[in-house]
Amino acid sequence: EFRGCLSELRSNLSLLRQFKWIDQYTRAILIQMSLYNPNIQMFTSVSFLLELLPAGGVSPSTRFEPFYVQGLTSIVYLIIIVIHVLFLIYYIIKEFQDIHHLKIGYICRIWSFIRLGIIICSWIGMAIYLWRYVEIKRVTNLFHDTNGYLYINLQLIAYINDIFNIIIGFCCFFDHFRRVQKKAKSSQNEDQEAFNYMVKKVICWLGFIKPNQFDCQDEKDEAVRLEYYDTFQYFPIVTDRLMEILYRMR
């Protein structure tokens, strides 16, 4: 739901310019807005940044950060969280048993750090999930009280959501290597098996990611060539206009 209007935004910019908040010394203008889609329960934090270059011209940039309102809305979410906590407690007890039996040898095993990474990232992810739930609850209550007519800054929730996604990515990353450990146990040389597996993954990454980057770079180069081509194409026209302005200034 977009409660504001474009004319009001323009009038605010004109007012800022009238009171000389925006003048020739201004280097950037940041416009923020918050959007809400009630059909899918999704908030979106929108930021428009207009950089005023010293040599003239404007360099615009935009950032959209959507996130869903997913809280403890049913008993299913609560059951899943309880099961997740029980599994974490089980793995923690198991790791303490390994530390007690292996002692200093526990540190010498690389797979021990991977399991510790899964446990630590899981607990951090749960804490961030609860933090995000509290913030979303606060924002939804504020949105309900104001009916969307008051600006609500969603940057904090978007920041929390980004951290949560990063933590989930680390959990998936460590879990992937835990599966490599199970696969390597069937081999006589675990280190060699793990090294070969990592080499295969790097080759696959180079095979799929690098060509995509090269294609994107070619598209950027083509866009730059077209831009400079258009600039030089209209260079005589711009020069004639400049000479006409200088002639009038005489």
Automatic annotation (TrEMBL):
<dbReference type="InterPro" id="IPR003915">
    <property type="entry name" value="PKD_2"/>
</dbReference>
<keyword id="KW-0677">Repeat</keyword>
<keyword id="KW-0325">Glycoprotein</keyword>
<feature type="domain" description="Polycystin cation channel PKD1/PKD2">
    <location>
        <begin position="74"/>
        <end position="175"/>
    </location>
</feature>
<dbReference type="InterPro" id="IPR046791">
    <property type="entry name" value="Polycystin_dom"/>
</dbReference>
<dbReference type="GO" id="GO:0005886">
    <property type="term" value="C:plasma membrane"/>
</dbReference>
<feature type="transmembrane region" description="Helical">
    <location>
        <begin position="67"/>
        <end position="93"/>
    </location>
</feature>
<comment type="similarity">
    <text>Belongs to the polycystin family.</text>
</comment>
<keyword id="KW-0812">Transmembrane</keyword>
<dbReference type="InterPro" id="IPR013122">
    <property type="entry name" value="PKD1_2_channel"/>
</dbReference>
<keyword id="KW-1133">Transmembrane helix</keyword>
<dbReference type="GO" id="GO:0006816">
    <property type="term" value="P:calcium ion transport"/>
</dbReference>
<feature type="domain" description="Polycystin">
    <location>
        <begin position="10"/>
        <end position="67"/>
    </location>
</feature>
<dbReference type="Pfam" id="PF20519">
    <property type="entry name" value="Polycystin_dom"/>
</dbReference>
<dbReference type="Pfam" id="PF08016">
    <property type="entry name" value="PKD_channel"/>
</dbReference>
<dbReference type="GO" id="GO:0005509">
    <property type="term" value="F:calcium ion binding"/>
</dbReference>
<feature type="transmembrane region" description="Helical">
    <location>
        <begin position="151"/>
        <end position="174"/>
    </location>
</feature>
<dbReference type="GO" id="GO:0005261">
    <property type="term" value="F:monoatomic cation channel activity"/>
</dbReference>
<protein>
    <submittedName>
        <fullName>Uncharacterized protein</fullName>
    </submittedName>
</protein>
<feature type="transmembrane region" description="Helical">
    <location>
        <begin position="113"/>
        <end position="131"/>
    </location>
</feature>
<keyword id="KW-0472">Membrane</keyword>
